[in-house]
């Protein structure tokens, strides 16, 4: 970090120094911290929301899973797309799931979150942020209201799984920030059960993932 003895050191020169003198892993982590600092700055400016320094660093080291659901009325099916990335936003795995049944959109969305939680548990991941564009699902899982319905039972399952995992949070994002998972969910009817990595993922999906890295 720039020190007090050299007040002429700018952020640009400091960051450039990191990029030129460190290993790739250090460069990627520094970039993620800077990105989270920028987001924290925007939260203060636009949302009047403050974030502590340690929280910024924690978020910069948090893995990311995006989920989305899709309804296929003509086929009486619904689908789920799950996109897993590490804290540098490198694509780890993509999961496409399709099931038979006519359900409401929020059912498909919460099943997507449950599938993401199951993946986290199976792979012993920690420090994960799950992003979905369903505000209803995020509010339901984060809440404490008991709902005697299919949706409510699925929500309760998610709550129990979150409580058993190490630092897993659910966040709402706009559809424009959830394009990769949306793409997988929309295609799930035709490629159910498929699992991809960065090496064999469809080119159109990789293009969206690369575009989201620069968001």
From TrEMBL:
<dbReference type="InterPro" id="IPR044730">
    <property type="entry name" value="RNase_H-like_dom_plant"/>
</dbReference>
<dbReference type="InterPro" id="IPR012337">
    <property type="entry name" value="RNaseH-like_sf"/>
</dbReference>
<dbReference type="InterPro" id="IPR052929">
    <property type="entry name" value="RNase_H-like_EbsB-rel"/>
</dbReference>
<dbReference type="GO" id="GO:0003676">
    <property type="term" value="F:nucleic acid binding"/>
</dbReference>
<dbReference type="InterPro" id="IPR036397">
    <property type="entry name" value="RNaseH_sf"/>
</dbReference>
<dbReference type="Pfam" id="PF13456">
    <property type="entry name" value="RVT_3"/>
</dbReference>
<dbReference type="InterPro" id="IPR002156">
    <property type="entry name" value="RNaseH_domain"/>
</dbReference>
<protein>
    <recommendedName>
        <fullName>RNase H type-1 domain-containing protein</fullName>
    </recommendedName>
</protein>
<feature type="domain" description="RNase H type-1">
    <location>
        <begin position="66"/>
        <end position="187"/>
    </location>
</feature>
<dbReference type="GO" id="GO:0004523">
    <property type="term" value="F:RNA-DNA hybrid ribonuclease activity"/>
</dbReference>
């Amino acid at each position: 970090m720039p020190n007090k003895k050299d007040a002429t050191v700018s952020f640009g020169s400091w960051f450039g120094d990191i990029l030129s003198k460190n290993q790739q892993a250090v460069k990627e982590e520094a970039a993620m911290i800077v990105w989270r600092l920028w987001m924290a700055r925007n939260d203060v400016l636009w949302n009047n929301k403050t974030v502590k320094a340690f929280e910024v660093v924690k978020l910069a080291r948090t893995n990311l899973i995006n989920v989305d659901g899709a309804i296929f009325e003509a086929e009486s099916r619904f689908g789920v797309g799950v996109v897993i990335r590490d804290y540098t936003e490198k694509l780890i795995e993509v999961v496409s799931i399709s099931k038979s049944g006519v359900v409401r959109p929020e059912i498909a969305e919460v099943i997507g979150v449950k599938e993401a939680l199951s993946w986290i548990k199976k792979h012993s991941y920690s420090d994960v942020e799950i992003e979905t564009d369903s505000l209803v699902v995020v509010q339901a899982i984060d809440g404490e209201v008991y709902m005697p319905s299919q949706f409510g039972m699925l929500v309760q399952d998610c709550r129990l799984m979150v409580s058993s995992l190490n630092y897993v949070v659910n966040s709402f994002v706009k559809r424009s920030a959830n394009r990769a998972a949306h793409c997988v969910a929309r295609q799930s009817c035709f490629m159910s059960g498929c699992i991809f990595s960065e090496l064999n993922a469809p080119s159109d999906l990789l293009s969206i993932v690369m575009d989201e890295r620069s968001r």
